[in-house]
Amino acid sequence: MAKRRHRGSEELMLIPFLDILCSLIGVLVLIIVVLVVAQTQKINGRNPEEVAMAQEHMKLLKVQMEQTQANDALRDQLEELAKLKEQEQKGAEKLAVLRALLNTSVSTQEQQKEQNQRLLKELDNLMLEIRGLASQEAPLKAAIAELMAEIKKRQPPENKGSPIQVRPGGSGLAKGTKVFFIEATWEKMSYYWDETNKGTVSSAPEVIAADVQFNNYLKAVQAVPQSKLIFLLRDSGMGTFNNGAGWAQANHGYTAGQIGKLPIPGNGLIDLGMFREFIGTLPVPVVEKKETATPPKAAAAVPAPVAPKP
Predict the structure, then answer these.
(1) 289 Cβ neighbours under 8 A, 6+ residues apart
(2) For a Cys-Cys bond, which of 96, 134, 219, 240 suits 184, CB 3.0-4.6 Å?
(3) Cβ neighbours of 264 (radius 10 Å)
(4) What pLDDT band is residue 20 in, cutting at 50, 70 and 90?
(5) Does residue 259 carry a pLDDT above 90?
């Protein structure tokens, strides 16, 4: 079957649409050209009045910044000037004081001179009195010594009672044991170097710890083979025993078996004859005698001070 042909009048014509589109593009191009020409007539997008105002504003800002810097510098200078004025005022006050001291009247200086002379005279008198007292010191000491000796002679002999014989107790002592005795009272300890010679130390714990001779005695006894300490307790001597025995155990290595105690009734002299076989002996330390200090010489007279010149 043959196709049916379309008629020529039925074809779609696009020419009018293209004409309209071209016209629209032309109008847009014209608008763009007009805008570009208008912008080119301005300087950086601004008119001359705005540019002039902006330049004036920048100048004003610069001037304001310069004025601020100048004000800060002026403020610092004013503060420095105030400090200088304060220092100047203080200097003027010191100068006034110095001038007042330098302008001391002649009458005041004369009074000071008289007062200095009077004080020097009193000082000379005191030095003479001191020399006199120093010359009398030696005779006074000799007289005091004679009086003390006379008083000692006139004192009645101390009644210590009959000698007290110390006897061994318990199971006795092993052969070769060396016994060292310490007599303890409420105020002191008397430690025996041998059967007759002894030294003394206070019963105060701080004195026991600091006494060099007593600590040397404990060291020497500890160094003797089979040595033993026996405290002879007088009345109220238990506290002294605790201090001495405790110090020997804590600081010199004594054992409980090396330390013993025996109560001693009464105030009589102690007789250690029954321990003669066991008594340990140590060399008695030699005590150096201190020389008597010579009295100081009298001081020379102080020279008179020179009065200040007016």
Answers:
(1) none
(2) 240
(3) 19
(4) confident
(5) yes
Number of domains comprising the chain: 3
Cα distance between residue 282 and residue 199, in whole Å: 12
Same domain, 111 and 76: no
Residues 72 and 111 grouped into a single domain: no
Instruction: List the single range of 79-88, 98-107, 127-136 with lowest mean pLDDT.
Output: 98-107
Indicate whether 130 and 75 sit together in one domain. Answer: no
pLDDT given at position 90: 87
The string of DSSP codes covering the chain is: -PPPPPPGGGSPP-HHHHHHHHHHHHHHHHHHHHHHHHHHTSBTTB-HHHHHHHHHHHHHHHHHHHHHHHHHHHHHHHHHHHHHHHHHHHHHHHHHHHHHHHT--HHHHHHHHHHHHHHHHHHHHHHHHHHHHHHHHHHHHHHHHHHHHHHHHHSPPP---S-EE----TT---TT-EEEEEEE-SSEEEEESSSS-EEEEES-HHHHHH-HHHHHHHHHHHHSTTEEEEEEE-TT-HHHHHHHHHHHHHHH---GGGEEEEE--SSSPEE-GGGTTTB---PPPPPPPPPPPPPPPPPPPPPPPPPPP-
- Closest to 302 measured CA to CA, from 116, 48, 61, 165: 116
Angle between helix 212-223 and helix 238-252 axes, rounded to 10 deg: 70
Instruction: Kindly report the backbone phi and psi dihedral angles of residue 184, in degrees, each rounded to the nearest multiple of 5, phi listed first.
Output: -115, 125
Confidence (pLDDT) at 288: 56
Per-residue model confidence (pLDDT) at position 193: 93
Residue 309 has pLDDT above 80, yes or no: no
Report yes or no on 30 lying in a domain. Answer: no
Domain hosting 264: range is 164-275
Q: What is the pTM of this model?
A: 0.43
Listed in sequence order, the residues at least 6 apart from 221 whose beta carbon sits closer than 8 Å to its beta carbon are 180, 227, 229, 280, 282
Higher-scoring residue by pLDDT: 307, 227: 227
